[in-house]
Amino acid sequence: MQPLDSAKLDLDVDIVEFCPQTGLHNILAVGTYKLIEEPYSRVGQLHLFSVSEAFSEPRRSVLTENLTHETTAIFDLKWAPAKEGRSEKALLAQAGTDGNVAIYSVSITVPVSDTIVSPDLNTPEQVELESMALIPCTTEGLCTSVDWSQPEQFGGQLLATSTSAREILVVDMDAPGGAVPLLTIEEAHELEVWMVVFDRWHSDLLFSGADDCTFKGWDLRQGCDDPALDVRFSNRKAHGAGVCCIAPSPMSEYVVATGSYDGFVRLWDTRSERRDWQAQKQKWAGICVPDTGVKRTKGGLRVTRREHFF
């Protein structure tokens, strides 16, 4: 398989995410990261690309960079769930090494096709980025991941983030006056929390994974009223290294995939949390399987069909 196009960026690429919103399907967000040792700092850039089909000859670029936004080093990006119908605007959340989650509004002034075909490849879409909010999440660590709930399940939009200080924070994004923290789990794991994800089918269930090799599930129906927040399940034996990626299946209600630094993908049936299947035997450095079908590895990108996993 040969790539259709590529782009060389100034900093290391940490995360790529296609927009799920109808009307913006061809907008690609790319987050980058660089550690500067002297003087010590972490810097990053948020890039927005348009992707266009390019099968004609002579070959033309399918990647058009629309803008670059200077920011803190980026650990994670996540688009808000798509709204019904077509829209020229979507929200994007950014987990940064400054301990904050940044919320952006991404919009276009020229509608783009759902089939990711631009009628004129020489005229890039006018993509605009607007900063909407900056949510302080931790004073002692880095924000390592971010995720949105499915709004129809809570009657509103929740956002969750994890931190290197072992914390998990859940925020009500639809509260009057702006984002309001609902709960903070201060010692969610024994070591750095690398991933927090809402279940796609049951947004009262929150998954987390950390450097302590533990995969956990949290019941938000108790947590929103009770700061103690009972753990629905916890498994520390299945993974041979830190749990860095969690991906609930968009097609199978009770299937969740986890990725670990031990190089294996595991599939879980959430009705029987103690059992897991090592579904992949390739030794990758740490993988995730988001619903775009792109796995993020520590060594680069590998494209797969999501039917292989769900």
Structural features, described:
With 310 residues, this protein is mainly beta. It folds into 2 domains: 9-136, no CATH class; 137-310, 7 Propeller (Methylamine Dehydrogenase, Chain H), CATH 2.130.10. Helices cover 3% and strands 46% of the residues. The strands form 6 sheets. A 4-stranded antiparallel β-sheet has the order 1-2-3-4, with no helix packed on it. A 4-stranded antiparallel β-sheet has the order 5-6-7-8, with no helix packed on it. A 4-stranded antiparallel β-sheet has the order 9-10-11-12, with no helix packed on it. The protein is globular and about 50 Å long. Residues 115-123 and 277-310 have low confidence and may be disordered. One of its GO terms (cellular component) is cytoplasm. It holds the Pfam family WD40. One of its GO terms (biological process) is protein histidyl modification to diphthamide.
Q: Main traits of this protein?
A:
310 residues, mainly beta, Methylamine Dehydrogenase, Chain H, 2 domains, 4-stranded antiparallel β-sheet, globular, disordered C terminus
Task: Please give the structural blueprint.
Layout: E1 12-18, E2 27-36, E3 41-51, E4 63-72, E5 74-79, E6 89-96, E7 100-108, E8 127-136, E9 143-148, H1 151-154, E10 158-163, E11 168-172, E12 180-185, E13 193-198, E14 205-210, E15 215-219, H2 220-223, E16 231-235, E17 243-248, E18 255-260, E19 265-269, E20 276-278, E21 294-297, E22 300-303
Antiparallel strand pairs: 1-2, 2-3, 3-4, 5-6, 6-7, 7-8, 9-10, 10-11, 11-12, 13-14, 14-15, 15-16, 17-18, 18-19, 19-20, 21-22
